[in-house]
Amino acid sequence: MFKVARASQYLAITGGGIEDIKLSKKSWVLPWQKCTVFDVSPVNYTFKVQAMSAEKLPFVLPAVFTIGPRVDDTEALILYARLISPHDKQSNHVNELVEGVIEGETRVLAASMTMEEIFKGTKEFKKEVFDKVQLELDQFGLVIYNANVKQLVDVPGHEYFSYLGQKTQMEAANQARIDVAEAKMKGEIGAKERTGLTLQNAAKIDAESKIISMQRQGEGTKAEIKVKTEVKVFENQKEADVAKANSELAMKKAAWTKDAKVAEVEATKAVALREAELQTQVEKMNALTRTEKLKAEFLSKASVEYETKVQEANWELYNKQKQAEAVLYEKQKQAEAQKAEADATFYSKQREAEGLVALASAQGTYLKTLLDAVQNDYSCLRDFLMINNGTYQEIAKINALAVRDLQPKISVWNHGGEQGIGGAGGSGNAMKDIAGLYKMLPPVLDTVYHQTGMQPPAWIGTLSK
Fold it and tell me: Which residues pair with 159 in a beta bridge?
């Protein structure tokens, strides 16, 4: 059977194939299933809750709550369908359930507040009741749509609010009488004060008029004296300023004259000092140029001789290699001749050749292993093989033979101590530099003499032969 619920209704289906409860607006209902239709529209519950404040004063709280199931929460609807929907919403069971929750929470909250707090804070009291009642109704799947708490009412025999109203009326009447008496008193006092103030103000105005007249006369005399004094002070100040300006001008002229003379002397001394420094640098550069020229000539001569010896050694090495290749070629020819003489000898030589091939293969594997060990660095492999085969030793011997006949001449010069040259400070350092320049000349001139046979000029000095 296919069932459809109205807009304000839901279908609660239980039975075979459904674990708990299935809620739907329309569904097929099988024979082994049971369907219940329940209404979710809210209902108004009107109560008169009797409670007692913290001072143990009873009162009646009229309230109207609009309560219904929470339709936007499936779990709440299932709770409502399980606990409330089997009963009529207007039945005594549901009414007593809701009323019990509201009365319980209202009484607990009222017992913690004074009557004055409840009466003055009706809005806060309503919110507290609303929140606590809603917390309890959540377990039934219900929600409060609206809560209207009316004014507090006295319990018969306890006319607290009546007495409170009478007290307010009496306080208002008494306050009105007091206000009338105070107004009458203020009127009489005000009239007397006005008369006295009029007389005081008249006397005060006369006295102030006389004082102002005297002040005007004194201020005129004072202003005249002040103007004369300021004029005299201004004239004295101007005379002092003129004298001060003349003094400062004379001092500045003297300072300018002094600075000009000092600058002229310093410029003359600076030019002379700069000329001496430039002359010293020129002499140093000339000496360095001669020295470098001699070094270049000596080194070029030695380089030429070295290259000649190296070429001769290379030529000798080349001849020895060719001789060795000729001997090897002759040996190969002899081996071929001997191989042709007999089959036995041929077989022996063939085996010998295979041995050489195996040796070459082993050497190739050895070289490949070495190359892998040095990470394919051919220069490193070449250096290792040359060291292992004694190539570097042979080259060293050849180079030694090449330079053996050069017989360079070495001169050793001793300048002695330097403690007696110059004094302390900057002048001592300048003298050391000049002394070092002159100490360098004898070995340079001696080398030039031995290499070229040229004597230094007579104004420099003579060399011992």
Answer: none
